[in-house]
Amino acid sequence: MRFDPALEQGRLLQRYKRFLADIETDSGERLTIHCPNTGSMLNCMQPGGRVWFSRSNDPKRKLPGTWEISETPQGRLACINTGRANTLVEEALRAGVISELNGFTALRREVPYGQEKSRVDFRLQYPQGDLYLEVKSVTLGFDDSPVAAFPDAVTQRGARHLRELAALAREGVRAALLYCVNLAGIEAVRPAAEIDPVYAAALREAVAAGVEVLAYGVDISAEEVRLVRRLQVRSL
Description:
Elements (H helix, E strand, L loop, with lengths): L7 E9 L3 E6 L4 E5 L15 E6 L9 E7 L5 E3 L5 H11 L10 E8 L4 E9 L2 E10 L8 E4 L5 H15 L3 E8 L6 E4 L5 H13 L2 E9 L4 E6 L1 E2 L3
Parallel strand pairs: 9-11, 10-12, 11-13, 12-15
Antiparallel strand pairs: 1-2, 1-4, 2-3, 4-5, 5-6, 7-8, 8-9, 13-14
């Protein structure tokens, strides 16, 4: 996924009301931009840290730009725009990067399914049947550790998605969860049981039911973000 034009750089002043961020650009311009992340953004932002943002000239927009990448307190780069994760995964699926999921003949996004009326991120069709794929964007890292974690805040929605996937797996339908780790310098990902023990328990139950769990990491720059490598999944 290329940014066209390339992202602009600045410094974070503050994030507030969840969806707003005040920044100062390298030229000294102060802007309020959109923060497209509903999570806590724990450990992936700091006042004064570098940020990269896309600028919009659309007169209908209330804010002039969107925060895309953050420099974390650990010095890593994180793609904090959670809306990018599905685009990255689709590109990787179509390019054959995610080898475990190769061989599909058709791909659909945002397909309704499940008893709890969810929408799965992808439904992949194979000659032997469908696969339902849920994607989660991971940005939570820790000092001196190459292991990231999910979630960064309590997520009832995430636990619901795991229940839905587990129900499919019990019925003999192939179901998978993919952690899109949007954080540089990471080798593995784990459930953040210390933040959301209910989610961690739901993940264990999903794995026991037959849900596949995968993790892939990215290369990040102001010009491009790409899903490129398989990561370990720990402590399931």
